Amino acid sequence: MPGGAGDVRALLPLRYPYLMIDRVVDRTADRVEAIKNVTINEPFFVGHFPEPLPAVMPGTLIVEAMAQTAALLAVGEGAQSGYLVGIDGAHFRRRVEPGDTLVIEATRIRSRLRLIRASVEARVNGELAATATLSLLFD
Q: Which class for 132: exposed (0-12), middle (13-18), buried (19 or more C-beta within 10 A)?
């Protein structure tokens, strides 16, 4: 299901500035690949970090982008809204800076009733930027 930002807005009940996914590259029942283009005009770069330090995407927002990608695993299963309820083994391997394209892949580990557990990786130019196992609860 490749698509642009319009497709993402149709799938997730989030809007700017909180929608962290720009495009869905691929989506199956058990795997989703999405992209976040990191640009200098993102509102969080105003204060994270001030010059002369390099602008860096906050880890919490990288996890949010990963959670939004994982939430796409529930689309089509009747879920209206979901909540991040668990973050296990989160690791940050490299900085994510303006100009980077964050490629996020979420793979379903298991689903039970309204709970989805997914292994998620975020990469920049093929290099691992962040990993986590996320749990999401859906209404």
A: buried
Give the global pTM.
0.92
Active-site positions read 48
End-to-end CA distance of the chain: 24
Alpha helices (H) in 72-117, listed in sequence order: none
- Enumerate the β-bridge partners of residue 94: none
Topology adopted by domain 5-88+109-138: Thiol Ester Dehydrase; Chain A (3.10.129)
Domain ranges of the chain: 5-88+109-138
Q: In this structure, what token pair is assigned to residue 59?
A: 């880890």
CA distance 121 to 109: 13
Q: What are 21-75's pLDDT values in tens digits?
A: 999 999 999 999 999 999 999 988 887 777 788 899 999 999 999 999 999 998 8
Spatial contact of 47 and 57, defined as CB atoms under 8 Å apart: no
